[in-house]
Amino acid sequence: MTAVTTSAVERPRGKAGRKPFYKDMSVQVFAGMAAGALIGWLWPQSADFMRTLGDLFIRLIAMFVGLIIFCAVVHGIATVREAKKVGRVAIRALIYFEVVTTFALVIGLFMINVLGPGRGMNLDLHSISGAGLDPYLATAHKITANGFLLGIVPHTAVSAFTEGNVLQVVFTSVLFAFGLLALGRRADPMIEMIDITKRTVFKIIGYVMWLAPIGAMGAIGFTVGKFGIASLVSLGAMVVEFYLTCLLFIVCVLWPIARFSGISLWKLARYIRTELLIVIGTSSSESVFPQLVEKLQRAGCDEAIVGLVLPTGYAFNHDGTCLYFAAASVFLAQAVGIDLSIWQQLGLLGILLVTSKGGAGVAGSAIVVLVSTLAATGTVPVAAVGIILGVHRLMSSAFVAVNILGNALATLVVCRWENALDQAALTRALDGETMEPVTESAAA
């Protein structure tokens, strides 16, 4: 007897079924961001409450991220039923991640040296309060080779999920998936249950996403209330330089990769515009992981490839964050009057290639990795990080968005390499044709 597939057949919805613009989630999120900016400007004293709204939305999504990663990885590997293919995809993805993040670090160093926003500041370190660094200094010791290796393996099978450590969840999921592979057909009921669990969680995430405009409003309201409306208009030389660096990376690295792979980067960004707006508002990549999984599958990506590449990308492919590391570290040297030679900067780049991977799964990893890297090189005082704490959130909005765009593109590219990309579905998705599920009976 032929097993009935659980995946729904999809067909494009015609123009007559197009939703009014105000029902588009990206429009609603943008409206929420605008309302948040207005509230933060008019009532800055509401910053703490607005932050609570933003954090609440992130928590609602984040509590399912571990489960989604587990289901996506396990179901993807178990349905492939070929360990050799799993290893090939993982190796290709990791090589891709390493090459692209290296380009990110190089571009980050190039732009900060050319524009030099920190030159002439000559800040006195004694005037900088280091109290805000204490939480980051306390966890910076984790970013070591030994700490990284030990951090891959959770203390218990459950702690990876309770602590929200993406790298540990991926590791646990891979082990569980290979266990199911070893069972053969006897594992089919478990695989079916995992697939049903994943679909159930996607439904729940769909309900939570109705709160996305409120979450974005709260996050932006907090930023404006804390830093003032000028934070959205005149962000300072460092923030402007970093935004330009992100744009240069997208144009010079991501766009050629997309073009060579036959993918329109502009259409891809438009396709995931809601997710990009959410991460710009919340500065949290976890807040859109479930939606990315679903959207990439709808765009023709093989479920197994998405389940392998996207969670791994969340752990290892931090394009935007690497731009931030390179720019911020040299900026701090410029700000305190330290002239780093080209060899010192190349040494810094080499250390960042390692520490950027070691930060996977560490809460607040961007600042933590930066602190640990400066401590490892000894060329820039760690206390100097206090200079950028005030604008870190403004920059994180940019680098998290670059991370999301880079990981979405990486998943599509690996699918293309593996001949596991439905070009017709990709074209429909990127051209904006809404897809609606069709039941098996209706399809028949």
TrEMBL record:
Membrane topology: Multi-pass membrane protein
Keywords: Cell membrane, Membrane, Symport, Transmembrane, Transmembrane helix, Transport
Gene Ontology MF terms in the entry: fumarate transmembrane transporter activity; malate:proton symporter activity; succinate transmembrane transporter activity
Major subcellular location class: membrane
GO cellular component terms given for this protein: plasma membrane
Compartments reported by the entry: Cell inner membrane
Annotated GO biological process: L-aspartate transmembrane transport
Cross-referenced Pfam families: SDF
TM regions (residue ranges): 21-44, 56-77, 89-112, 166-183, 204-223, 229-257, 322-343, 363-389
InterPro entries to which the protein is assigned, alphabetical: Na-dicarboxylate_symporter, Na:dicarbo_symporter_sf
Family per record: Belongs to the dicarboxylate/amino acid:cation symporter (DAACS) (TC 2.A.23) family.
Protein name (database record): C4-dicarboxylate transporter DctA
Species the sequence originates in: Rhodoplanes roseus
